[in-house]
Amino acid sequence: MKQNLILVFFLCISLITYAQEFTPNYNEAKIPDFTLAALLESTQGKKITSTDDWESIRRPEILEIFKGEVYGNIPDAKVKTSYKSLESSTEAIDGKAIRKQVRITFKRKGKSAFMDLLIYLPKQAGKPVPIFVGPNFYGNHAIENDPEILLSNSWMRNNEGMGITDHKATEKSRGYNSHRWPVSYIIENGFGVATYYYGDIDPDFDDGFKNGIHALFNNKKNNDVPKADAWGSIAAWAWGLSRAMDYFETDSAIDEARVAVLGHSRLGKAALCAAAYDERFALVISNESGCGGAALSKRAYGETVGRINRVFPHWFCDNYNKYNENEAALPIDQHGLLALVAPRPLYVASAEEDQWADPKGEFLSLKTASIVYELYGLENLIAAKMPPVDQPLIQGHTGYHIRTGKHNVLKYDWEQFVKFAEMHLE
User: Fold this and answer.
1) What is the SS3 assignment for 28?
2) In a domain, 338, yes or no
3) Where residue 366 sits, what CATH number does that domain have?
4) CA 297 to CA 304: how far, in whole Å?
5) Is 30 inside a domain boundary?
6) What does the pLDDT look like over 5-60, one tens digit per residue?
7) How many domains does the chain fold into?
8) Which of 320, 309, 381, 341 is nearest to 18 (CA)?
């Protein structure tokens, strides 16, 4: 009886703590003192003085920390993959583009999952083209007002503005997020663009990983309880990006050596995770990815590790909970994630009014990671402080801007992304 009362007491304390309203810190003066792990020193104290040392010693160490403590380990079990063309046209975007809709199906041990990949390519390219790829939030049909894009049947987060009230897409959502995907502009500049709905891979709610791609790997002997270092949703969405890359390697119209991976917000976290885990991506773009993405966690500014883990317990591996209100104990911070992209070109974008994502923390993370680009002898982000709003820094293999406005992806952002990609992929 006494033991039960103690259990109830601690449960009540936990519920009260959880229920307390989170108050973000937006005051630089209240940022705790912190120390960032040295990127060019191994866990054994060895100085990293060459790219060989980085690639054989330090990079694998940092990658293993992110796999074990943050995003989780992706299973290495084989999955049977197949591709099926659902629709195609050579007259898309007013006759300027080729449109392809491809279903990628995954099968393992009698279970299956899929993702629908939407692709637009410049019509008159005449040779394999470089391409941007990123997940989207509300279905492929929402990124362009094109009646031929198949309406998604997958689970959706409700959004009254888009007419989604029962977790299903409606015609009202067609083209709703086209401002985030200026397809015509991208095509006119000689690039392709591809996207998939992130919920195809893993619906964005906490159900113990019994749906989406996780269901193919559930361990029945362990009663389907994931290990503390098992992959969360962000790693799963990153896995989807790698499967898109697999497809690009089969499509002769796409240059798989010139693929730029990008994402916004939580999908910016996924893009960075994908680039860290899979080095085939040639260029990497993070747009306002914030906590668990590009921003330094130890600043505890805006969204924090504890807050993100409590509200979205399925995004990261369980081990990440060790750092709730305990960021100082992190063995690596997000500058390490950005460093894992080196020597590939990396662009980080922030927004002035998106303090929740800590723009300064994103800039400082990139600036700190630039030391690894220097190790490769590459020109990189050398500014001593953040640039003014709407004055992009595009220098060598790293780039950064903070623009006017709120948490979003705008044409202005894409103008910088395209300019950066033109420097490195054309």
Assistant:
1) helix
2) yes
3) 3.40.50.1820
4) 7
5) no
6) 443 343 444 444 444 689 999 999 999 999 999 999 999 999 999 999 999 999 99
7) 1
8) 309
- Residue-number span of the structural domain to which 288 is assigned: 61-425
CA distances from residue 145 to 84, 88, 308 in whole angstroms, order as listed = 23, 16, 33
Task: Please report the pLDDT score of residue 19 as a whole number.
Answer: 45
Q: How far is CA 94 from CA 89, 90, 120, in A?
A: 11, 10, 12
pLDDT category at 308 given cuts 50, 70, 90 is very high
Q: How many residues are given for the chain?
A: 426
- Alpha-carbon distance of 99 to 117, in angstroms, equals 11
Sign of the Cα torsion 129, 132, 135, 138 reads negative
Reference 112, options 235, 215, 240; nearest CA is: 215
3-state DSSP percent of the chain in helix, strand and coil, to 5: 40, 20, 40
3-state secondary structure of 265: coil
> 45 lies in a domain?
no
7 belongs to a structural domain: no
Annotated catalytic residues are 265, 407
CA–CA separation, 134 and 193 (whole Å): 8
| pTM given for the model | 0.94
Q: How far is residue 73 CA from its own chain's centroid? A: 16
The beta strand positions in 305-397, using DSSP E, are 346-351, 393-395
Candidates 236, 346, 362, 383; CA nearest to 288 is 362
